[in-house]
Design a protein that fits this description.
Four copies of one chain form a homotetramer. In chain A, the strands form two sheets. In chain A, strands 1, 2, 3, 6, 7 and 8 form a six-stranded parallel beta sheet that branches. In chain A, strands 4-5 form a two-stranded antiparallel sheet. The N and C termini of chain A lie close together (about 5 Å). The first copy, chain A, is of the alpha/beta class. Chain A contains six helices and eight strands. Helix content of chain A is about 40%, strand content about 15%. Chains A and B meet through strand 5, helix 4 and helix 5 of A and strand 5, helix 4 and helix 5 of B.
Chain lengths: ~200, ~200, ~200, ~200
Amino acid sequence: MNRKPKILAFAGSIREGSYNKKLIQAAVNGAKKAGAEVTLIDIKDYPLPVYDGDIEEQQGLPENAMKLKKLMWEHDGFLIASPEYNSSISGALKNLIDWTTRQATKDEVYLSCYIDKVAAIMSASPGGLGGIRGLVHLRSILENIYTLVLPTQKTISNAQEAFDSEGNLKNETHAKEVENIGNKLAIMIDKLKSS
Amino acid sequence: MNRKPKILAFAGSIREGSYNKKLIQAAVNGAKKAGAEVTLIDIKDYPLPVYDGDIEEQQGLPENAMKLKKLMWEHDGFLIASPEYNSSISGALKNLIDWTTRQATKDEVYLSCYIDKVAAIMSASPGGLGGIRGLVHLRSILENIYTLVLPTQKTISNAQEAFDSEGNLKNETHAKEVENIGNKLAIMIDKLKSS
Amino acid sequence: MNRKPKILAFAGSIREGSYNKKLIQAAVNGAKKAGAEVTLIDIKDYPLPVYDGDIEEQQGLPENAMKLKKLMWEHDGFLIASPEYNSSISGALKNLIDWTTRQATKDEVYLSCYIDKVAAIMSASPGGLGGIRGLVHLRSILENIYTLVLPTQKTISNAQEAFDSEGNLKNETHAKEVENIGNKLAIMIDKLKSS
Amino acid sequence: MNRKPKILAFAGSIREGSYNKKLIQAAVNGAKKAGAEVTLIDIKDYPLPVYDGDIEEQQGLPENAMKLKKLMWEHDGFLIASPEYNSSISGALKNLIDWTTRQATKDEVYLSCYIDKVAAIMSASPGGLGGIRGLVHLRSILENIYTLVLPTQKTISNAQEAFDSEGNLKNETHAKEVENIGNKLAIMIDKLKSS
């Protein structure tokens, strides 16, 4: 295609010092090096109420859900760094997915912000397993809403020791692997959107 | 044991007309028939912000998270009817678990409201699969926080047609199976708490 | 690319009258219509011992494992119709994967028959859930060995009534959906292999 | 109850030097200390063909499947050390489950060797994740066939360095945790079978 692959990147955590907010940065760099245009957002800037079908019926989607959906529509794929809470994804990320999978209007094709998108996922966690169980759930959830998920993923265990004071991964091999995920996503989108 | 098994029951959905709020009632009846003392709550009455580690650090647990933890401590087990959103549990239920698994104080034994508890789970869903994929995730999450989950579970598909105007399951076999889950949970708790 | 997409297709069941052997045929037709060259095999023709590390060390890979690996190397992707046994994939399919993921020689790049391949999966099952839990495991296993799995999948429930005497799906919508999976796989491979 | 809890223990691997065969021993010791009668078997002694519905229909269950079913019927619970192959359980263990879940005769209550049994699971693996993904699948499979699985489990990563020359876990904390799993299983069975 003529235009660059457009990727929306975010961490599934709200808190300021989140390891996953650091992690996503490395993947963003990789995607940019591969020629992608990347929009990195902080989900803290899009606060949502906990999903409640009655709110939806009475008031429609919250403004921030609409803003997130708009961002998703405008991009070809997603880079997601997902913290593991209780062996699954965060309530914050699940809630964001629950809202953005709802139709903006009755005319919106169901799941239109997710269908035919491509995603790459990763996780940093203080535990020894690096968030692998959260990624199992996230992968499953995304594919169920018709987003293609790259097989290559990366988990960073003992996250409290993994980043330097500037937020970069200390381990260079890990840093390259995460960058490579962004890179692969950009290339994959480029291939799928061209032809 | 001398005292009755105490069970906390709730649906993982907030909205008023939730199928899972109807479903949980049948299981509650079964548990009561087996001699359990059951507290049925509506999670709508315990609104929580989306979990954010910064809120926790600055303000501690929200009052409703503390109320929920107190309820959990006072009961031996849980009956949970869990809607399936996007092939997993609801953001609402995940968020409730994320908050209640946090320590009330530094002295609280980590996961103390969940350890050695016993749970039984079920699901009603408008789709043809009845929420089975949500239960796979829920089971996995609960066991990872050391709650024993009964193998017997029940899914109700096509939930929009499954209940009569009084909220009872029309299909009597299904109704008995759901009641039986409450029954089994009460008996299991009784066995584990006695000796 | 100049050459056609090459797809290896098989069911994860050994028995003659397998519903999944019927199901795979519809997907194969779809892939062919989209221009793919499809090799449909019956895994019964490649009997393997149950994987045993000692056999591998003493005798290397069995001849049939080598034949299967060769077939995999020669194709760009896989169409798999997977029966559900005990809420997971069949022992037969797992065993086939266990053998073909082993290195033919020390020089073989680990997982080389799976890396960068693309797969599409489907399931037919006599139960009401159509094998959805088996597909959850299969998807997870394939992606872990670096095979990209299309989000679109199809489950056929009550399989004993789903096929006519010639082995075709009676329900035309279902037949088209399964055909469409083969079609999508061929197109995806074409996009990824070109450029 | 008057009689001791009876536990069947095995590793899900066939090869002689299997880490999981070493691991299971520690759990067996724990179960014995808690008063259980434990039968430790090597699944290598019960070779089975890969499950094929045609073999079953024509010849019934293989002799070794019948022997395994008999062992399962005679015991109250299972201790299983499960290797992880390709992010799931071994083909060998899946195949064993596939055969033993089939009915010995038309009169056998379906799944009778698994219903109301109690299991505890663990895993040793050369990788950094210790086999956690295999345990996720195993837990799910066992519960789906109505076996209660203890929430407490243990994974041993870097298994090639974890055992001493006599096959004992070098790390004493890990050794105690594994022993404790056997212990907990014996106690749980005792509680559930008494009353």
